[in-house]
Amino acid sequence: MCDVKRDEFLQVLPDIKAKIESCDFVAIDTEFTGLCLSEACKPSLFDTPQERYRKLRQTVGSFIICQVGLSVFKKDVKYNRFDVWSYNFHLFPQSFATLDVRFSCQASSLEFLCQHNFNFNKFVYEGVPYLDQDQEKQLRKHLDQTTWPSASGCQQDQVQTCCSTVSHWLSNGGGAELSITAPKGPLRFLIHRALRTRFPEVWTYDATDSQIIVRKVSETTRREEEERDDLAHRVLEYMLGFTHVFRALTQARKPVIGHNMLMDLMLLYGKMHKPLPEKYVQFKRDIHQLFPCIYDTKHIAAELKKPLADYGVLQSSILQELYTSLSSQKGRFMVLHSPSIIPAAECDRYTNESRPHEAGYDSYMAGYVFIRMAHLLTMQGINKQQPVPPRFRRYLEVMRRFQDKVNIIRASIDHICLSEEDPVSRRPQWLYVTLGQSRAARTVNSAQIAELFSAYGSVDIRPLDGNHFLAAAHSYGCAKDILRAFRNHKLIHVTYYNMWKHSRTVQVLLWTSVTVSVLGVVWTFVGKNS
């Protein structure tokens, strides 16, 4: 099974939990309704990890996850094979009582999903609900009440219509049972509750997808049915939805694989666990507690590009290109004991179909490339006399230096570390840009400088005042090319940034310190001579 729909979710949940509990590792991916809340939240090469977290936290608070991919990998040692079960969940928050989630959408993100055949009907009509801890507490309070409030006037009207129908049926001495329309979901639970509360002589039963049966029952039968059918528990299980899977993942404590997964982790935390903490260091501590073993294949691919250059299969860190390279004949059989990776029969849609940016497929690709890269690194330098294929735990030993290191795009560092201090920046020193005094130079702005510099690589510009700017370059080669190209430029002068020389704040502090020191010396001198 690849697509998991809302109506069948609770039926397949026990099997998914069992697969997670017995697997070697899982891979995850998410798709979401927006990527950047505002211009102020755009990523920049100037961003420290703390600044990037602040930007992403604002974004995550406004958008929601619309799809989650989960792939579960288990090694069959006997056959040197990984069996894979992949699941694709559309998610959609359901309203109930006062729970009524508001969220934003970004046009470019929805256009991107459209380009990759995202099914918005499944998102809304079949999306699995979910709750964070605060929402769960709120729901439990509602369920403890005798009368459950409706989420909207429309729901109240439908509940009242059903009550009127049953009242009319009973007053007219109707037959033993009555069939009424009640669509699945929160509204059906509200109808069940209202009818059972208002009419003590009946009991309600689920019939079809759109019908429930109202049946006249004795007091004894009603007591038996009340003990058998805990409606409040059913509501809670239904509304928790994908949160059950999230909690199963945190409890299993298996290695979690993703690709460029910082946003995925923040979204899962914010939507399934609790609101993201204000402090970046607190988030790192919390996410490491939830998922103590994380691997980001984008970071791994970037780090292994040079060490494994001889193999010629890690030329790109883009997930689709990595998968294409590592799943090729060359990628699969270039070293000894390369394991086969086989989707389970009920999840085999991804065997012959390419579905990039479908979350289930992306999670499958992330897990696949992790195995291939781990195997290449494990077998590097091992001769052909190696008697048996390495076990999965050996992969983890070899890959340990990449554990808990998550890629961060277009920032002052290229990855963060969830279990320890973040690394020192490997980016080049900032560039200091000064405009000339001519009339033509005064018309140059930061956008024009960015456009000129972009010919040499990724660059971000930060204006200091009308004539001075900072430039952050992605690589040392880019910075050197810019310095070389603008060495004798008529309008723009570029040099490496020196805080002591170019920072006005530092200069003011230095002059203030000098002034205070001089005044102190003078005061001391005057005091001695008076």
List keywords for this structure.
single chain, 530 residues, alpha/beta, 4-stranded antiparallel beta sheet, 23 helices, 16 strands, globular
What does this structure look like?
With 530 residues, the protein is an alpha/beta fold. Helices cover 46% and strands 16% of the residues. It has 23 helices and 16 strands. It has helices spanning 9-22, 49-62, 107-115, 120-125, 133-143, 153-171, 186-198, 219-228, 231-240, 243-252, 262-272, 280-290, 297-304, 319-326, 329-333, 349-352, 359-379, 392-398, 439-442, 446-453, 476-485, 499-502, 504-529, and strands at residues 3-4, 25-32, 65-76, 81-90, 177-181, 202-206, 211-216, 256-258, 294-296, 340-343, 405-407, 415-417, 431-435, 459-463, 468-473, 492-496. The strands form four sheets. Strands 1, 2, 3, 4, 8, 9 and 10 form a seven-stranded mixed sheet that branches. A hairpin with a 4-residue loop joins strand 3 and strand 4 (81-90). Helix 6 packs across helix 7 and helix 17 (359-379) packs across helix 18 (392-398). The longest helix has 26 residues, at 504-529.
